[in-house]
Amino acid sequence: MPPIRIETLTFSPAICTALSEILVETVAHGGSVSFMHPLSLAVADAFWRDSLASAARNERIVLGAFDGDTLIGTVTLLLNLPPNQPHRAEIAKMMTRVSHRHRGVATVLLRAAERMAIARGRSLLVLDTAEDEGAGGLYERLGFNLTGVIPDYALKPDGGFTGTLIYWKRLSDTPPSPI
């Protein structure tokens, strides 16, 4: 596979379509990313239009991983947090196309998100992932610390409950000083 290219995504119909296809595919394959199966392209499109509008307001960063001209993965860095949390960001909607899983795409996306967070003065990342078939192993390999599990946190895309694993990672050796 040629090198994976990471880009900050902005709205275009083509980008919105590609993101929507990844979201629908992820949910269809059991990915617990806040949606139920079957997920329509129209619902996915509405989600990504809102998400990319939020990115245009600097409330988040949506990153895309490309193999050539094909969008193969995405992750979102949430920045619009309460006033008492200016030092942290949240990782959300980490997804890789099924055809490109286990090839390092998620690792490259997460490392890029970490660099973006640091560049924006964030020293702490948090995230959650499904207990059943989630990406806990990936996050732990990349230095995230498991805080715990919340049982029955959400429904799986096909129904039935799954717990969520809560993770954190300090991006600098020095804790932030209060403002």
Q: Residue ranges: pLDDT <50 for 5 or more in a row?
A: none
Number of helices: 4
The CATH architecture of the domain at 5-123 comes to: 3-Layer(aba) Sandwich
Sketch the major β-sheet. 7 strands, mixed
Number of strands: 7
Shape: globular
Mean pLDDT over the full residue set: 95
Could you estimate the helical fraction of the residues in percent? 25-40%
Tell me the name of the CATH homologous superfamily of the domain at 5-123.
Gcn5-related N-acetyltransferase (GNAT)
N-to-C SSE string, H for helix and E for strand: EHHEEEHEHEE
Strand line-up across the major sheet: 1-2-3-4-5-7-6
CATH class of the domain at 5-123: Alpha Beta
Distance between the termini: 45 Å
CATH topology of the domain at 5-123: Aminopeptidase
Strand content: 25-35%
Content-based structural category:
alpha+beta
Q: Would you mind describing this structure in some detail?
A:
- The structure is a single chain.
- This protein has a domain of 119 residues: Aminopeptidase (3-Layer(aba) Sandwich), CATH 3.40.630.
- Helix content is 30%, strand content 32%.
- It is built from 4 helices and 7 strands; from the N terminus they run E-H-H-E-E-E-H-E-H-E-E.
- It has a 7-stranded mixed β-sheet with strand order 1-2-3-4-5-7-6, with helices on both faces.
- Strand 4, helix 3 and strand 5 form a beta-alpha-beta unit.
- Helix 1 packs across helix 2.
